[in-house]
Amino acid sequence: MVPAESPASDESLVEAALAGDDEAFSELARRHKSRVFGLASRFTRNAADLEDICQEVFVQAFFKLRQFRGDSPFQHWVLRIATYKCYDYLRRSRRSPPAISIDALLASGHEPSALENPAPDPDLEKLHAALAELSPKERLVITLLEIEDHSLKEVVDLTGWTLANVKVRAFRARNTLRKLIEKMK
């Protein structure tokens, strides 16, 4: 009986990918796909946009792999790329109105019943509406701090902003969010 190989570390997979082993990068993508997907899903409910963001993250990671210095874990590096891609998505989506998926409407073929879609929580709807009104930077900092539950230092590392900048943006974003929610009452 042949003993099972121990899984390769991210560092050894990065080295192999840099040496031209495409399967090594595929393994890195498989390992970190769920975390990137989880982060990106906080920024969009649209499945096509979510898939695009995640794909863009790993395409950029592949082409910029030589820039990975290894002074932090690979997961942290790829999540930083994901944070920038999510921020880019927020900026783009504020410029253009959300598209309605005609394919999804045609595929359903009928009106959804109350059993298929239970009544949404009005407070949650207000929160989502208020979040959509925030600027991309405000939404990014609120999402990372409050929804993703990252520490201030982690937000500094993910965004590249200074600690003071993160604190100020978070303070202003919370105030804006509070005012938007109060206006909806």
Task: Count the domains.
Answer: 2
**Any idea what the shape is?**
elongated
Q: Oligomeric status of the shown chains?
A: single chain
Largest sheet: none
* Gap between N and C termini: 68 Å
Report the helical percentage: 55-70%
CATH architectural grouping of the largest domain: Orthogonal Bundle
Q: What is the fourth-level CATH superfamily of the largest domain?
A: RNA polymerase sigma factor, region 2, helix turn helix motif
Helices, by number, come to 9
Count of distinct strands: 0
Determine and state the CATH class of the largest domain: Mainly Alpha
What percentage of amino acids are in beta strands?
A: under 5%
Structural class: mainly alpha
Succession of helices and strands? HHHHHHHHH
The CATH topology of the largest domain turns out to be: Rna Polymerase Sigma Factor, Chain: A
pLDDT below 50 for ≥5 consecutive residues: which ranges?
Answer: 97-116
